[in-house]
Amino acid sequence: MSWETVIGLEIHAQLSTKSKLFSGSSTEFGAESNTHVDLVDMGLPGVLPVANKEAFYKAIRFGLATGAEINQVSSFDRKNYFYPDLPKGYQITQMTKPIVEKGSIKVLTDEGEKVINITRAHLEEDAGKSIHDLFEGETGVDLNRAGTPLLEIVSEPEISNAKEAVAYFKAIRQLVTFLDICDGNMAQGSMRCDVNVSIKKADDKELGTRAELKNINSFKFIEKAINYEIERQIRLMENGESVVQETRLYDSEKNETRSMRSKEEANDYRYFPCPDLLPVVISDNELQEIKDNLPELPEEKENRYISEIGLEQSEAKIISSSKTMANMFEEASSRTDDINLVAKWLVGDVSALLNKDNIEIDESNLSPENFGKLIERISDNTISGKIAKSVLEEVWENGSDVDEIIQTKGLVQIQDESLLEDIAKKVIDSNDDQVTAYKSGKDKLFSFFVGQVMKETQGKANPKSVNEILKKLLK
Amino acid sequence: MDKKTVTTISYLSRLKIDGEKEEKIIKDLDNIIGFVDKLNDVDTSNIEPLTNPLEKTAKTRKDEVTAKNLKKELLEVAPSANEDFFLVPRVVE
Prior knowledge:
The structure holds 2 protein chains of 2 kinds.
Chain A: E1 3-14, H1 39-42, H2 53-65, E2 69-70, E3 73-74, E4 77-80, E5 90-93, E6 100-109, E7 112-125, E8 129-135, E9 138-142, E10 149-155, H3 162-178, E11 191-201, E12 211-216, H4 219-238, E13 246-251, E14 256-259, H5 261-264, E15 272-273, E16 280-281, H6 284-292, H7 298-309, H8 313-319, H9 323-333, H10 339-357, H11 368-379, H12 385-398, H13 402-408, H14 417-429, H15 432-439, H16 446-456, H17 463-473
Parallel strand pairs in A: 12-13
Antiparallel strand pairs in A: 1-10, 1-11, 2-6, 3-16, 4-5, 4-15, 6-7, 7-10, 8-9, 11-12, 13-14
Helix pairs in contact in A: 2-6, 3-4, 7-8, 8-10, 9-10, 9-11, 11-12, 14-16, 14-17, 16-17
Chain B: H1 3-12, H2 19-36, H3 71-77, E1 86-89
């Protein structure tokens, strides 16, 4: 029997505001516990939340970039549940009137381009952090994160497999980082996702019962968790059992999903309008200003690189694939006239290293500034392309400064023509046989001499000069 | 209103109801809901839900950090805390 998978994603993107959604506390990551907490975050009696306008502006940027409807009047609701890291006993969220509705995003899948619709994107506050394993019989609570603004981006259940889910998540991450509304840092939890998975027979119109997978924070785990869950559901159905609607936790160590029954006991959030907060209105002027100042999006960048700079489409696609990559390109391009050199290095050596380590560019040790320096040093003939490769590899390993590596390792290219000529003469003198063969018509041997000179200079000779000198000497 | 509903609601709101009071509470809640239920007689199908009785819109904040570090003071007033964290009976997922 053939089964179809139906997947929907809820992505939580932490908005990169300086202060929290409803208070003036800092949102800085990694601060000492409970130092970014004020009376509003604590939910103490008598305090009133006041919404941070910047969070709305950032959410609207997302809405505009996904061709969504912007609700210029949006309001907040309370989602009620008890948990120690939720001080008020409810989370403030947008249930009935979210700021953003009905957008869509293009995703590149194995079968080509696919449009995934976005049901809604709403603002809500994050909870604090519970620490379970530090204290005997007790749970510690750090409220630094409580009240941090999140944009919850809910997709339609239109995703058909694990790979597509990852592609969708990557597209959203690319977009929010280009829009500068979220830093996209998965390790720090700036982007997390819940996945709804169900299966149905190919000709069934109704969706099957879904399970919600929680606690997933990497691309790799999204794919694994979904594939595990699909198999589990198929096994149940084929054994004549049924899928239970529940929340399941993905355990990356065991690569399995487990039921979180405790949370299911009473999954009734009793939403109601938050009486502490009035509807927030975005004026036409504000909306227009955000539209006018929308940053360049990945697709626009790609097209500009092709039409204005003259890159190949394949190059432009790779370079505009992430904000960091694009920053590298733009930083390095400002340091040289040879744009093709920049593109060649990014699409070639840098991409090869990324593939080898199977990481994203912003997980690497290479910064746009350091890459810019590398290109500048090749471009101004300080180092040869060959040496540059080894410098790049070292930067890749430990993130050292390009100029420092060049200085401390004495990698500066030999520009002294007379020195190069001496070395070339030596090479010619000690290879009589090859010289005779070359002069009798074996042109291919030319590269042998170049190689020997390079070897003598430990790759520090400028290849162009070496070519000229050898041609002169071997006449 | 039945016993099961009262048990669920009391669990959700973390309010403990003594067994002997349960009957009375069921009766009270029935009365209250019966009273409020009259509102359902009004046809509201074409009326936007009211999000707030004040016909005003929100004042908002600029994105600035204005809060001070109150760690010591806040942990001091907590029912249970050590020098770094609020402490609660262990919750395990």
